[in-house]
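EI: anyone free to look at a 209-residue chain?
SC: sure, send it
EI:
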Amino acid sequence: MPKIKEPRYHKIAQDIAEAIVTKKFEVGQKLHARSTLAATFGVSAETARKAISVLADLDIVKPVHGSGVEVLSRERARDFLAQAKESRNLQETHSEIKELIAQQKEGLLNLDQAFSLLLDQTQRVRSQNPMSPFEFVPSSTSDKLNQSIGSLNVWQNTGATIVAILHDDDLILSPGPYANILPGDTIYFIGSDKTVEAMQQFFDGPNNN
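SC: here you go
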């Protein structure tokens, strides 16, 4: 069963978003310098910087040069937390199904019911939440392998935002621009249906199926 490794900075980003939602941090408030945030949450300054970058990319906060970080939106902070929870719930359902397959204790009927539950949940989440991820495994002959997400400019070339990479038995959430895409990796990304086709063409070329 894959081991979920959620980057520390992503967890801190959720903690800061939670503080915004619960009004510990008010909209318009200037938060302390990153070093102070790092001390508050017991992490390094670099981890705090990455956490702030995640929230800034979602327009939840805005770094203000020389005066800390400004809180922009409680609603977007709430959406961020809801999406993180939905992602964890979906991953838990995947794990439960893999355990059922491995154990094979309750027979094909229960397995079919579990897959039906996953399908229902996936359809519900995707209809209610456009941030639900797609998955894609590049061809082993792709010339895009063994390169980082940032150097490939995946978002610029496909419109896809990579949210996780499954490598062997390790699931890396929010991998960031420096993570390499290796042979056999499963890429989880968010985007539109057109993005799925764009990802296939980008990694495998238009003639591969």
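EI: The longest helix spans residues 74-103.
SC: 👍
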